[in-house]
User: Fold these one by one.
Assistant:
Number 1:
Amino acid sequence: MCRLSRDRLVRALAGAFCGRAASLVVQGGRSHIDGRSGTIDATTPIAPTWRLDQTGGLVLRLSGDWIAQSGEIPAFPPADLPAAAGNAAAGSLALDIAGVGRWDSGLIAFLWDVKHAAASSGLVLDTDRLPPAARTLLGLLPDTPAEPPAPPRPRFNPFARLGAFSLNAIAELGVVSLLLSAASRGAIRALAGRARMRPVDLLGNIRDAGPSALAIVSVVNFLVGAILAFVGAVQLRKFAADIYVADLVGLALVREMAAVMTAIIMAGRTGGAYAARIATMQGNEEIDALTVVGIPVADYIVLPAILALAFTMPLLYLYGCLVGIFGGFVVAIAMLTITPAGFMNETIWAVGLDQFIFGFVKSIAFAILIGVTSCRIGLKAGRSAADVGTAATHAVVTGIVGVIALDAIFAVIANMIDL
Amino acid sequence: MTVPGQSAEPPLLALRDVTLAFGARIIQQALSFDVRRGSIFAVMGGSGCGKSTVLKSMIGLLRPRAGAILVEREDYWAAAESRRTDIGRRFGVLFQSGALWSSLTVGENVALPMQMFTGMEDAAIRRLVRLKLALVGMEHALDQYPSELSGGMRKRAGLARALALDPDVLFFDEPSAGLDPITSARLDDLIVNLRDGLGATIVIVSHELPSLFAIADDGVFLDGQTKTAIAHGSPAEMRDHCTDPQVEAFMRRERLGALAGQAGR
């Protein structure tokens, strides 16, 4: 801090020497800067200067233009004051800004430094000669600068991190399970006709998650089917096994790709939207208001979100299968020597109903996973604008990773039961 | 009461036959008033009469449907956008709930306008940030995030940010809304001190009578039904001299019906 103020003084001095005539007044072994403008021009600002006058009482005389945005406001070196205080009999420091031209908060910033220095060296600050405006502003400022408490520096400890992460993961698992069970109880109540869920919310959620997502689900699944057919065609042609492209496309889509791709789309599209919406509600204290009124959040927000996804995702999955197989069909017919009827036949023969049921069940599981995690992340969010963004990102990432992890678990189970 | 356009010194801000509207809905029309340099000017009126909309048009957020807003005789809305930004830099605005940028600390909130619009070095900016925060009594919150502050503290931090560039005009949207009477009175003192200290002109949108009587020395009263100004002058003048039943009822906190009953008797 002290070195900084010295630097500044030196710079002020250098500036004074370069541009304007300046004089260094040496009084009784102490150095004082006394800058005077060479040209008197109302438009160009005069550099702000100060001088500690010790004849008679201790007086700090200021002159020049003290404009904050000029960036030339000098620092007041408090190191000089104690010695001066020893010399001064009066024990007070008077401020005189009669030589100051224009001023704004830059002057106040400097006077505040003086106030600190005076307070720390036991001098009484005499502000009588200040204009009332500057005096009032200075009066608002505290004598000693309040040091803001330093934020605790987090120390990097891998074990503590790992422990905290694991505990957090276990706790989250518990919270998500509780939320899911509360939502299920809400669903049971809904079946009994006593739900705190409005049908209009459910319908709105279904509209957002279903029909509005048709276009992107179509595009992605069509392309996935086409890509699978391309990859398969190149390899299978080598063995003259062209017709098995239909098996490849059909099985891959129905068992895995249609469900996973649809779930990833929904995690990005709907999961992110849920998390952002709920986080915004959290910021507006809307969630608190719901709790106070006595409307369970699980019934009113989480349940329609999960139900809407669990209702639309299986349908989108079936639709995605059809579009994907059509994509594969188009590529296969164009690239290989297969008849359309042959492709159809082979697909129907290869893909059994059990494969569809497997994919269908998976997509319901994905839907519940996306719904409950995105709602949980939204509810957990902080209350600022940045927190909303974090929550949306978090929900999308968790949704995608969760879907793929869950898919792996399904693959193991399917292997065990020989599906 | 002052009549617009008749004082010797040109007003710092002036509205001339301004019409404000959202789509087909007219908020205020044929609105004219002057804001003198160095005054504390109150825009008053009942809830929903368009006070905040008038403020929005003065700070550059809503283009008037018709009329002109003059800043030192220059038509603000007729100017090019870059010029409007330059003029707007002389304004400081305290929004109703502070409107602090939530991803920045309080200190960074105050520093951002200075970093963007001045060539000052970081050390000089830090010094001024501390000064502005100390002026509003918020120095201790330098490194805190807005979400960690109470409503009153957010408002004071918002004021420190409004002061960042030493504005010529400070706009306050409902400064005392949501504050307790003591904090509100302290904010009033601070506003007067800032006007006296920094020479800023202050425009306040408010319906808080105690605070208006305490600090405002000029003003305009907007009416939601006729959709224009129905009285000009300081709140105290309006209370003592204005005969319009709306204004009388507002200033004396009476019910319009009760007043009509008295008149009928």
Number 2:
Amino acid sequence: METEKAEGLGRYLVVFTGALLFWLLLTGSLDSQELLAGLLASAVVAVMAAPRMGILSGIRWSPVLPLQVARYLGVFFLALLRSNFDMARRVLSPALPIRPALVEVKTSLQSDLGRLLLANSITLTPGTLTVDVEGERLLVHWIDASPGTDLESATRAIVSQFETHLREFLE
Amino acid sequence: MRLVGDLFLLLGSAFLFLGALGLVRMPDVFNRIQAGAKAATLGVLGVLVGIAFLQPGWWPKLLAIGLFILFTNPVGSSTLARAIRIAGVRPWQKPAEESRALEEKS
Amino acid sequence: MNLNPIENLALALLGGAVLLGLYRLLRGPSAVDRLVAADTLSVVITGAIVVVAWLFASALYLDVALVYGVLAFVGTVAMARALEGGRS
């Protein structure tokens, strides 16, 4: 019971901090009145929204969390850049070199947040688009699937690069 | 400063243009989502970074817009793709591949 | 404001992107194609509004872009839900 309570309290803190940071970005000033209004608004948001933010419980808290998130973001942005050049190449070549197919892949991430981030990452990486998530199976539209791709090889090609990084800070 | 901003702006606009071109050229709705989702996300981020260099005082709000788009755009695209599949649309396959697959079977 | 060639080219590409998106929106051929076009177009236009804010040197337009982006996302998800047939 005690740990559950602590976790609930942490959730309030996360929502509060997030809302306050967003407020600071929107106002773009550190004026004391703006700050006071922001603190109040964030507190109201935290009280109202935190009990419904069960999605946050998938995070594994640790001192190196920011580092791990930063590394994941680095991998992610590289993939996003690659995916855009890949897409540009396909769109610009007259022959339109695509071999689209729907493939299934498997994830070992257990939490909703982990699967959400994984699905987002897949959507923004070269040639793949998450179509549906059912439990640990993800349905992916692959723009250049080689014929005879099975679950294992598709998982290796699409999922593993992100999963290893996501698993460091998510259940 | 202005030149750096201009280059980011140009890069972002170019990706947005390519994404829209993909929207027109791709043969079926799933491939169109693919082109749209990726190119639009990076394109808008490029434009935002460019404007942040051109108008340095605006960076907090530009960052807020960028973060919002980075998180919501792929979610929107995936939701749309899921709905389209549930609505019964199946992905397009290359005609040549289909006929070859048929030949191999027979 | 005087624009240099790079900026003019960027603006032309942005305009071209909007036109191509509009073409797909108007041509279809099916309703889902228009939906996808509208989704992509809304993101392109969010970027375009930010550029307009810079052209007019008015930070007010940034709020317009932010709200437009939020509404576009909510609209996309609502449309997707409607397409699924209102289950769940």
